[in-house]
């Protein structure tokens, strides 16, 4: 991992005041990469773990409370990485050295 990958941010509707608020989520699983054309795709599964509404101060801690409030508890995010990017920052470059 790495390469300046940005952690996705999720929002949900506050069950009390309907305000749109940030919901903290942690990555729990990542699929193996698959290659389509020149792009590597992988799916990451995020589970919501915490939220605090800045408007009405509702706080939910843990995925059980979040599920009980009928909020989206699991998010699936697709990551893409250009193969050229992988080669530029990845392994050694001895692919053309053999004569
Ligand atoms: Zn609220």
Count of helix runs: 2
Distance between the termini: 33 Å
SS elements, strand count = 6
Quaternary status: single chain
**Shape descriptor:** elongated
In short:
By secondary structure, the protein is mainly beta.
Description:
- With 99 residues, the chain is mainly beta.
- The chain has one domain.
- 13% of the residues lie in helices and 44% in strands.
- The chain is built from two helices and six strands, in the order E-E-E-E-E-H-E-H.
- Strands 1, 2, 3, 4, 5 and 6 form a six-stranded antiparallel beta sheet that branches.
- The mean pLDDT is 87.
- Bound molecules: zinc ion.
- Zinc ion binds next to loops.
Name some characteristics of this structure.
6 strands, six-stranded antiparallel β-sheet, 99 residues, binds zinc ion, mainly beta, 44% strand, 13% helix
Topology, element by element:
Blueprint: E1 10-13, E2 20-30, E3 34-36, E4 39-52, E5 59-61, H1 63-68, E6 74-82, H2 83-89
Antiparallel strand pairs: 1-2, 2-4, 3-4, 4-5, 4-6
Bound molecules: zinc ion.
